[in-house]
Design brief:
This protein is mainly alpha-helical. The protein has a domain of 86 residues: Winged helix-like DNA-binding domain superfamily/Winged helix DNA-binding domain (Arc Repressor Mutant, subunit A, Orthogonal Bundle). 61% of the residues lie in helices and 11% in strands. The chain contains six helices and three strands; from the N terminus they run ααβααββαα. Strands 1-3-2 form a three-stranded antiparallel β-sheet. A hairpin with a 5-residue loop joins β2 and β3. 11% of the residues are buried.
């Protein structure tokens, strides 16, 4: 059976919104890093590299809102805050691994297509 794409689904609006969040480059990186173990904000920021504090805060809040990430506050001075995947969040690892595998398998073909596209634009 052919998989139904999000834009073909009768509830495409909510599905599109969820895919927009979990498919963002930062969310994919955050979920991947949290698959190892729970991490603190600064650890995530350092390991991702190139993400602003605002962007990381936003993606963590969105993933928490959607039930994919949980925020645990330990009452110490200063308070310790850890982020980890929820049970629902771990179900996202399989689809992300499949997408990663596809990207790795097709990296050369996509690069060749991009070169062909660029050279065809130059000759127009």
């Amino acid at each position: 059976m052919k998989p139904q794409l999000a834009y073909q689904h009768p509830r495409c609006g909510p599905i599109r919104e969820l895919l927009q969040i979990v498919g963002s480059k930062w969310a994919v990186l955050v979920v991947g890093l949290l698959s190892e173990r729970p991490k603190r904000f600064t650890e995530l920021k350092r390991e991702i590299g190139g993400i602003t504090q605002k962007s990381l805060t936003t993606v963590l809040r969105e993933l928490e809102k959607d039930g994919l990430v949980e925020r645990t506050v330990t009452p110490t001075i200063p308070p310790r805050v850890d982020y980890g995947l929820t049970r629902l969040g771990t179900t996202l690892l399989g689809p992300l691994a499949a997408l990663t595998d596809w990207a790795i398998e097709n990296e050369m073909a996509v690069a060749a297509a991009r070169r062909r596209y660029q050279s065809s634009k130059k000759s127009r």
